[in-house]
Structure formats: C-alpha cells, structure tokens
Task: structure prediction
Amino acid sequence: MSAIDASILDEAAQWLARRHASDFSEAEQAELARWRSRSATHEEIWQRIEQLKFRMDSVPSAVGMAVLDRPRAAGNRRQILRASALALATPMLGWFSCRYLPWHIWNADFRTATGERRELTLADNSQVLLNTASAISVQFDGKERLIQHLAGEILVETAHLSEYKTLPFVVQTADGRLQALGTKFIVRKHARSTTLSVLQGAVQVMPAHSRQSLVVQAGEQVNFDAYKAGAFTSLPSHADAWTRGVLYAENMRLADFLEELQRYREGILRCDPSAAELLVSGTFHLRDTDRILELLARTMPIHRQQRTRYWITVTRS
Result:
C-alpha cells in the first residue's frame, strides 16, 4: 500500500470515529462530504470502511468499551473471530482491521483513554501509572511478576511484599523484556521500538530476538527494538513531567511538540512544513490541549486552520 493510501486511511479512520460520535455536527457532515469528493480513492476507501463498520456491528459491545472500570461481559469470542475474518476478506480491509482494531488492547486488564491517566496498586504493592492511551495486562504466578505492556506509556515503582520478594519483576513489550532491579522507571511503547527511562535503581534489558543483555542505571535512557538496543543517553530532566499532567518543552521543534501533544487529544493535529522548524519552550498543562494551541497561536508566528475541533493544521503565518 502506498504512503498516500496509508495517509488517506488515517484520515478515514478519524472521520469514521467522528461520524459515529454523538456530537457529530452538520458542519462536520458537510466537511466529510467534501473530503469524500476529493478523489475516487477517498470515496472508495470510505465505502469500504463503512462496510467494515457494518460488519463489526456483530462484535460484542464489551470488546469496544473505551471507559475504564466498566464491567466487561464475557462476550462470545467466536463472534469476534468471525468479525476479524470478515475484515480480512480484502487486503485493504485486512490492513485497516490490523491497524485500527487492536483486539489485544481492548482485552487488556487495564486501559486508559486518550488524555487520561490512571494509577494502580498491584498485589505486591508495586505502583503503576498509565499515561494517555495506554494498556497493560498483569500476571503474577509462582515464577515471576509480569506486566504485559501493550500500548502507550507507564511509570513503574516496584515494591516487595514478603510473599513476592523472590519473584522477578518483569515488563514485557513486543520488543523485549525489562527486569527491574529494585527500581522506578518509565516504559514507552512506540510503533517499532520501546524506550526505557530509569529514574531510580536499575533495569536489565533483553531484546526479544537477541542474546544481548544490558543494565540501564538511574539517570540513563535507552531505546531498543526486538533485535538490538541503541546507545545510552542521559535521562532528560523532565522525563516524568507527564506524571504530573505536564508537557515540558525546551527548544523543541514545533512539529515534534505537536506530535507529542497529539497523544493527549482526539482527532488530527498536523504541522505544516512551513512551521515545522519553529522552536517551542515552556511548561504546558495537559488538562486543556485546546488552550495550549491557543497559547501557541498568541505567542508564535503561526496560524491554526481548524476545520473542526478534531481536525487542525498549524501553518506559519
């Protein structure tokens, strides 16, 4: 699939989410119609995604619940598998299903919605804080204390109740295993890699498809994928700012800043190349991302092209 097609699919996914939201407006309906009319490809993709949405109506509602702590009914897994098979009926629908229908995340033990944070106390008294759009599953058995880190970002502070103190504490991502060595650390899952930031103690990193094993000490950070780990870097001074609901920037490219801000808000937030290299500095409270954008517009030579609240492009003024 070409990069252009993937971009159109990204836009279509956002429009699909808005189209079926309770506050979808007439203005957005008109904007959607204009988007569909941009090309035959736009209309074809929209039609196929609408077909996929229709087919997915057979999925139990418990699977798609986005709000934490609501009871999850057992559901019928055969219905879920049947819907998946239907989605895989064509290559494009299969690609879309894999990208936008994250079954493993929906079935996670704990999840957060976009813009939400959530603190957990595990059975051994360890503390876990989930950042925006994050998901984990937890399994304690006679061999180890395991967190399956499925999406997003978490802060872990380990504890050792007597009945668990001999069991290793492990965080597993698709890229490898991280074993805590009496510690406080942050794990962030990216599309093709994982970043570990150690605040206290040390963490052992073992990439999934490598014999490499390394120990990351307090004040260090490393990015790794399933095959290798990168070079150690010094931990940024505000690496844990998000745990306080803050986004900190120091001479950050506007394009990078908006990409980070996008994690905390629904919809599409784009930076035009004309504004990408502008620099941002400051401490921004994440409880109101609209206000952050307003502040940037007042203090920087930029302009917001806002089709709707959920579709914003930032350009240079």
